[in-house]
Here is the input.
Amino acid sequence: MNYRHAFHAGNFADILKHAALLATLEALQARHPKVTVVDTHAGSGVYDLRGPAAQKSKEAQAGVLRMMGQAAPAALDQLKRAVAALNGGGETVLYPGSPRLVAYALRPSDRYVGFELQPDEHRRLRENLAGRRNLELGLGDGFAEARGRLPAEGGALLLIDPPFEKADDYGRAVETVAAALGRSPAATALVWLPLKDLETFDAFLRELEDAVDPPILVAETRLRPLDDPMRMNGCAVVLLNPPEALDAALADVAAWVSGVGEAGLGRVWRID
Here is the structure.
């Protein structure tokens, strides 16, 4: 696989995904004395916005740099604090990936289990999280590995954030959610996906509805109409067994993120 998240780190899609991730984890921690987070596609954990990949794409300008430099919804405060802490309160030159965000939000009773398929990314992940406790960082196929790692009881969050380079990533995401929730019916699953064309998005949601029973919360942000399958026109976060009271906060974030597009739309809706 040629995908490297360094090209996209801190972009508009990361802002929606990571705000949703932190809000979901916080809500689960309020309900459970122990929460296990299982991450299928961990990445390297920290990204240098000064590096050649980030400088080539410049996607962070409409994402984290906009968030840190302008007024933003209160729902982004937790993510802003995490970014500021990583950068020592100075200029924003580093962006935290999901593993670092979770690792620094864990309580002593919580646990993070992350998988990364690419050896070099896995090596950097271990380096970036060295010294943190309650972490298991595996090298392997997260789709296959994550299914049996959620606890049968207690607080659990499954994060699925594949690169969607392969056509079967959509199908494997659905299969992984169904298998994981079959083992842990009360677990929460968070799936991030790009929005390119409406049919692909609708087909994914139909397959998900056919595969699982839990309530589904969808937070989507569109920068442009979903009419070009060759272009990332937006993104969505799909939550299964979502904690209560996330709708308004995620709606604020989705609307704010969509403001960088020429025909932006941000909204949150449920499938019950």
Observations:
- The beta strands are 35-39, 46-48, 94-96, 111-116, 135-139, 155-160, 188-195, 216-222, 234-240, 265-271.
- The radius of gyration is 17 Å.
- The longest helix spans residues 12-31.
